[in-house]
């Protein structure tokens, strides 16, 4: 059973109910979609982010419902997620050429010069000794 983040609230002095503690919420309306950025806290007071995409839909029987998709992001993943998001947005917004240039520069920085080693620099191994006890 998955635990929900939040605080426990006593109801009628007997039952306990999990209540999610929302620290901060930002709502972004974008066309037919609405995005919710919710900062929440775990029981240990560690913050995490939920990003929810909500789309208004019309059901089979004419009833309106909201289709939701959620992503949970934890502190230790923020930097890598932000880097990936930035790269994807750069790729879409400025075209693939600019991102390819960034990748090429990054690869050039990490390349190492090939090392030429001669046979003298290795140890001579005699495989005939392997079968002897």
How is the topology of this model organized?
Layout: E1 7-11, E2 15-19, E3 22-30, E4 33-41, E5 47-58, E6 64-74, H1 78-94, H2 96-110
Antiparallel strand pairs: 1-2, 3-4, 4-5, 5-6
Question: Summary?
Answer:
The chain has two helices and six strands; from the N terminus they run E-E-E-E-E-E-H-H. The chain has 133 residues and is of the alpha+beta class.
What does this 3D model show about the protein?
The chain has 133 residues and is an alpha+beta fold. It has one domain (7-111): Nuclear Transport Factor 2, Chain: A (Roll). The protein has helices spanning 78-94, 96-110, and strands at 7-11, 15-19, 22-30, 33-41, 47-58, 64-74. It is extended. The relative contact order is 0.08. Mean pLDDT is 75; it is low at 1-19.
**Main β-sheet description:** 4 strands, antiparallel
Radius of gyration: 28 Å
CATH class: Alpha Beta
Low-confidence residue ranges: 1-19
Summarize model confidence as the mean pLDDT: 75
Query: Which strand-content bin applies to the residues?
Result: 35-45%
Helix content: 10-25%
Distance between the termini: 56 Å
Shape: extended
Helix-strand pattern? EEEEEEHH
Strand line-up in the sheet with most strands: 3-4-5-6
| CATH topology type | Nuclear Transport Factor 2, Chain: A
> How many individual helices?
2
**In the CATH classification, which architecture applies?**
Roll
- What structural category do the secondary elements indicate? alpha+beta
How many DSSP-defined strands? 6
Number of domains: 1
């Amino acid at each position: 059973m998955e635990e929900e983040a939040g605080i426990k609230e006593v109801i009628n002095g007997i039952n306990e109910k999990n209540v999610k503690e929302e620290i901060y919420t930002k709502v972004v309306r974008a066309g037919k979609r609405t995005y919710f950025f919710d900062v929440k806290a775990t029981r240990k007071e560690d913050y995490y982010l939920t990003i929810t995409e909500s789309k208004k839909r019309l059901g089979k029987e004419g009833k309106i419902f909201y289709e939701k998709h959620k992503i949970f992001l934890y502190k230790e993943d923020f930097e890598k997620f932000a880097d990936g998001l930035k790269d994807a947005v750069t790729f879409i917004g400025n075209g693939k050429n600019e991102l390819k240039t960034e990748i090429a520069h990054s690869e050039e920085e990490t390349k190492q010069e090939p090392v030429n080693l001669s046979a003298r620099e290795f140890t001579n191994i005699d495989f005939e000794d392997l079968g002897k006890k």
